[in-house]
Amino acid sequence: MNIDQSKIPQATAKRLPLYYRFLKNLHSSGKQRVSSAELSDAVKVDSATIRRDFSYFGALGKKGYGYNVNYLLSFFRKTLDQDEITKVGLIGVGNLGTAFLHYNFTKNNNTVISIAFDVDENKIGTEIGGVVVYHLDELEQHLPEDVTVAILTVPAHVAQSITDRLIAKGIKGILNFTPARLNVPDEIRIHHIDLAVELQSLVYFLKHYPNE
Ligand SMILES: NC(=O)c1ccc[n+]([C@@H]2O[C@H](COP(=O)([O-])OP(=O)(O)OC[C@H]3O[C@@H](n4cnc5c(N)ncnc54)[C@H](O)[C@@H]3O)[C@@H](O)[C@H]2O)c1
């Protein structure tokens, strides 16, 4: 089935990796089908939302049967490009950046940080989690063309100028951990991650929806 991915709402698209991870576990434990209630329980998304999400993928689920795990898995693999490895560049090998290099997403999916940059001479030339750290001055020279995504874990005041250079070099998506609001052309995608906001939202939900 061909699915026009631009028709999948963003909120649904954001839940895909969550579903994918759980289905992969189910698959490796030998399960062939799963109900929306089971999924709901595991990924903590209500089952009406799951049914709506899955209807976008043409997975309608049958009453009393549930969803076919293999079908869903192959769909997610294609949609999330899990058959391809997405290479990621990391800029800023400090507290956060170092943690990401050690973690390097190996257990989750096929994204991998393949190169890192910093300006600290003590870090240049070292290898962290198997990834070599280059000087930012060498960004244009060393950032490979197949790296299309970057993670920004630098101080906020240098974030915009680095972003401009990354875009000039062909980066299409940036996961921004800095507090800086970045100006980018429309075709560049920025996801901004702020733990303080996430925590506040958690506290808000605990306070206002304590029983859900
Ligand atoms: N989003 C969040 O939830 C969250 C949480 C903590 C920190 N942060 C932010 O993430 C960023 C990194 O935090 P941290 O604790 O890892 O900081 P850090 O100071 O430990 O690391 C910053 C790194 O960037 C390097 N750097 C400085 N200027 C650079 C440049 N021009 N080019 C390349 N590298 C450069 C430094 O040498 C250092 O290694 C900060 O902007 C911080 O505010 C965000």
From TrEMBL:
This is Redox-sensing transcriptional repressor Rex. Homodimer. Gene3D superfamilies: NAD(P)-binding Rossmann-like Domain, Winged helix-like DNA-binding domain superfamily/Winged helix DNA-binding domain. It holds the Pfam family CoA_binding. InterPro entries: CoA-bd (IPR003781), NAD(P)-bd_dom_sf (IPR036291), Rex_bacilli-type (IPR058203), Rex_DNA-bd_C_dom (IPR009718), Tscrpt_rep_Rex (IPR022876), WH-like_DNA-bd_sf (IPR036388), WH_DNA-bd_sf (IPR036390). Residues 81-181 form the CoA-binding domain. NCBIfam families: PRK05472.1-3 (NF003989), PRK05472.1-5 (NF003991), PRK05472.2-3 (NF003994), PRK05472.2-4 (NF003995), PRK05472.2-5 (NF003996). Its main location: cytoplasm. It comes from the Bacteria. The gene is rex. Residues 18-57 bind DNA. NAD(+) binds at G92, V93, G94, N95, L96, G97. Belongs to the transcriptional regulatory Rex family.
